[in-house]
């Protein structure tokens, strides 16, 4: 009865699924949304040549975090899907991405052996408006699948920044440089973790990841790994 009233939909495009037990619609099934080798050794972005170790962005702007990883390429229909989770409360779509992480990335993430998994934090005003933090949903699922504790208050977002998509890479970096602050009390309570896995939904210029990494390193964290659901292409 419930399936009749609320038929399952494709988590990528939102269209009703016509095939029983299908995860995606027939159109989205044919799309290559996942990051494939070769990838940048630093940020995890898909690159064109196995001969290159780093993407152009990481060559021009070396990153502070230990290593970045991702599941999907940030392009349609993934852009639309992640926006639906964030802005249209389609939290059920996150289940699809978590199932694919379990299948494709769990072993790689488990090998990191993080002391703690944390989500990229939202500013309190945005969280109140949205009602949830999408990065937290993914962080909880990933922490559970690799058997690691999750802590959402180790890093706080102390500044409510303007929409980053309207800024160029340099503006993003400057804006986010002081947007995050480590929580010393939580750092002590969680046993002074040395290796932290940071989870976010989208990676483009890396400005957010850099801001969180620097806040963590000021606390005393030595290794910071970044995992994002989708990683963009290009940027410099």
Summarize the structure.
By secondary structure, this protein is of the alpha/beta class. Helices cover 37% and strands 15% of the residues. The longest helix has 13 residues, at 134-146.
The averaged pLDDT comes out at 92
Q: Output the radius of gyration.
A: 18 Å
Strand proportion: 5-15%
Number of strands: 6
Q: Summarize the amount of helix as a percent range.
A: 25-40%
Gap between N and C termini: 51 Å
- Label the structural class: alpha/beta
- The global form is globular
Unreliable residue stretches: 1-5
Strand order of the largest sheet: 1-6-5-2
Which sequence of SSEs, written as H and E, runs from N to C? HHHEHHHEHHEHEHEHE
- Major β-sheet, in short? 4 strands, parallel
Number of distinct helices: 11
Could you describe the 3D structure shown?
The strands form 2 sheets. Strands 1-6-5-2 form a 4-stranded parallel sheet. It has 236 residues and is an alpha/beta fold. Helix 5 packs parallel to helix 8 and helix 9 runs parallel beside helix 11. The N terminus is likely disordered. The chain contains 11 helices and 6 strands.
């Amino acid at each position: 009865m419930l399936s009749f009233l609320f038929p399952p939909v494709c988590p990528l495009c939102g269209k009703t699924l016509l095939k029983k037990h299908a995860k995606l619609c027939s159109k989205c099934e044919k799309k290559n949304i996942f990051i494939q080798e070769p990838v940048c050794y630093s940020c995890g972005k898909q690159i064109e040549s196995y001969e290159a170790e780093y993407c152009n962005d990481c060559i021009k702007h070396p990153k502070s975090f230990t290593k970045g990883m991702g599941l999907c390429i940030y392009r349609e229909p993934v852009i639309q899907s992640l926006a639906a989770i964030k802005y249209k409360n389609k939290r059920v779509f996150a289940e699809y991405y978590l199932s694919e992480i379990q299948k494709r990335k769990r072993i790689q993430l488990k090998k990191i052996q993080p002391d703690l998994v944390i989500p990229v934090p939202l500013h309190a005003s945005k969280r109140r408006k949205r009602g949830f933090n999408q990065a937290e949903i993914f962080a909880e699922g990933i922490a559970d699948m690799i058997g690691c504790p999750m802590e959402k208050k180790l890093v706080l977002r102390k500044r409510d920044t303007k929409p980053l998509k309207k800024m160029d890479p340099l503006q993003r970096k400057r804006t986010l440089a002081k947007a995050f602050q480590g929580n010393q009390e939580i750092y002590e309570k969680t046993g002074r973790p040395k290796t932290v896995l940071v989870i976010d939904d989208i990676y483009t210029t890396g400005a957010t990841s850099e801001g969180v990494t620097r806040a963590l390193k000021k606390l005393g964290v030595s290794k910071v790994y970044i995992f994002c659901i989708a990683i963009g292409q290009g940027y410099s």
